[in-house]
Each structure stands twice: as C-alpha cells, then as structure tokens.
Amino acid sequence: NAGVTQTPKFQVLKTGQSMTLQCAQDMNHNSMYWYRQDPGMGLRLIYYSASEGTTDKGEVPNGYNVSRLNKREFSLRLESAAPSQTSVYFCASSAANTDQPQHFGDGTRLSIL
Amino acid sequence: KQEVTQIPAALSVPEGENLVLNCSFTDSAIYNLQWFRQDPGKGLTSLLLIQSSQREQTSGRLNASLDKSSGRSTLYIAASQPGDSATYLCAACAPNTGFQKLVFGTGTRLLVSP
C-alpha cells in the first residue's frame, strides 16, 4: 500500500551542486506533479506531467527540469542548486478523471548551503 | 489568476468544540475544491473533494461545503479531538482536461487541547 514514494527524504547540498529527486507511484495514475512548499507561501506547482510522455511548466519552473521516465516515475532535477531552492518538495499523482483527489508523497526536505 | 485564502491562519480550541475553517477563492470557474490534512513532517492526506456541481460532502465528523457564487468553502469539524491537530489546506482545481491544476491556500494550523 505504498501510494507515492519519494527519495531521498532529506538532503543537504552546497550551492552549485546538482541532484535528482525521485518519485514513483503505484496507483496507475496518468498525471504526476512536483510542488515546493515554503513557509507562508503554500504549495506551488513546479512542473507537471498530464500523461506519460508529456511535461509542462507550472508556476515556478525556473532552475528545475523534469523527466517522466515511464507511467510510474517522475523525477525532478536541480542542475545548479541555489539557496533559494531550499524547500520541502512534494510529488503527487492523480487519475485521469478529476473527481478523484491528488495523492501526495511524504516529501523531500532539501537544504542548500 | 486564481488566489486561495484561508482564515484563520491558526486556531486553538479545547477538545469537544465544533469548529469551522474557511477557504475563499477569487475565480469561481473551478472544477472541484479539495481539502487536505498535513501532519508535521508529512505529506498531504486528502479529506474531502467537492465537485463544482455539489454543495457539500461529508466524511465522518467532517463536512465541507461549497458556494461557488461567493467563492467560499468551509470545513466543519464536529466534536474536535486532540488527534485532529494538524494543518488543514484547501485547494481550488481549475477546469482542465485530464489533469488537476490545483491552487493551494496557505493553510489553517489547528491545535486541539485535551
């Protein structure tokens, strides 16, 4: 009963380093999403993938890239990390029909020094 | 651009009280309105989803209502318990085909004291 699984759970990077956040879902959902959550700002959409093979920018895409590897997996890459990217990152997924809620992972807490 | 506001930002009540959390949105052209719960250090857990054609949804002690014309949704929690302590988030879903474009409020942090 895994749902949405994110790895790693915690990470500390130095400015300029790169890393990839991994996300996998086992609910056969078509759509997947990456959000960041910052104090006082709520969750903001970074990128989404409406279906396998497609990706689109959300509200705050600068400094990030994504890959929809297959129907299960959706990764988020920081090419050159900046302190402003210190945040909690959440992956979510949803079915094609919009009468079902999004399902979220437990998040990755990322600090960039 | 859709904006979602939640008031109050924080709420502290004694156990047993009935309470109401408020959510307002600026664009009434929504597909659905979703309520989530977030425990410290955890992800979001879906509580209720109200379709734009519905007025309310109920799950146990939770009842969520939706008034699109006024741009408001409320989450009613009956007989609150310490285990209800968490942050509650609402999100408005824009009408798109095949995926959910959610705009979140910043949440109401609820503390229920024994």
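qc> The interface with chain B takes residues 4, 30-31, 33, 40-45, 48, 50-51, 90, 92, 94, 96, 98-107 of chain A (CB under 8 Å).
qc> done
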